[in-house]
Design a protein that fits this description.
Layout: H1 3-22, E1 33-41, E2 47-55, H2 60-69, H3 71-82, E3 89-94, H4 97-128
Parallel strand pairs: 2-3
Antiparallel strand pairs: 1-2
Length: about 140
C-alpha cells in the first residue's frame, strides 16, 4: 500500500469520525455510539469502505440504515472540508471484529480464572490431607 493511500485512509477516518461525533440529524442514531474502526481505500482511490462499530448491539441494524441514508451528506461534507479533486465513494460496513475479540478475551479470562480456582482448590486439598499418618 502506498503512503498516499495510507494518508488518504487516515484523513478519511478522522473526517468521518468528526462528522459522526458532531452528530447527524437522524432519529435512528439517537442513543447510539458509532466509532470508525478502519477505512480501506481501493487502489484506484475511487471507493472507500468505512468500517464502523455501533453500540449498543441491539440498535446496530437500525443505526446502519440511518448511516446509509446519511452517506451522501457525509461524503459531500468531507469533500467540501478536504477540498479534494476526486472524492472516493464511501460505503459503510459494520465491523464485528471487536465483538469477536471481546468474546475471545472473555473466554481466555474465564479459562484463566477457572485454572486459578482449580489450582487454589488443589493447594487447599493437599494442605488438609495428612500424608504422614499411617492410620486409616
Amino acid at each position: 500500500m502506498s503512503r498516499r493511500t495510507q494518508q488518504l485512509e487516515s484523513t478519511l477516518q478522522r473526517a468521518v469520525g468528526k462528522i459522526l461525533a458532531d452528530g447527524l440529524n437522524d432519529p435512528r442514531l439517537e442513543g447510539v455510539i458509532v466509532s470508525v474502526t478502519e477505512v480501506a481505500v481501493s487502489p484506484d482511490k475511487r471507493h472507500a469502505t468505512v468500517h464502523l462499530s455501533v453500540l449498543p448491539e441491539s440498535k446496530q441494524e437500525l443505526a446502519m440504515h440511518g448511516l446509509q441514508s446519511a452517506r451522501a451528506h457525509v461524503q459531500s461534507t468531507i469533500s467540501r472540508t478536504l477540498n479534494m479533486r476526486r472524492m472516493p465513494q464511501i460505503a459503510f460496513r459494520l465491523d464485528t471484529s471487536l465483538k469477536k475479540q471481546s468474546q475471545i478475551l472473555g473466554a481466555i479470562y474465564e479459562s484463566i480464572e477457572t485454572d486459578s480456582v482449580r489450582a487454589e482448590d488443589d493447594a487447599a486439598a493437599s494442605l488438609t490431607t495428612d500424608h504422614g499418618d499411617p492410620r486409616p
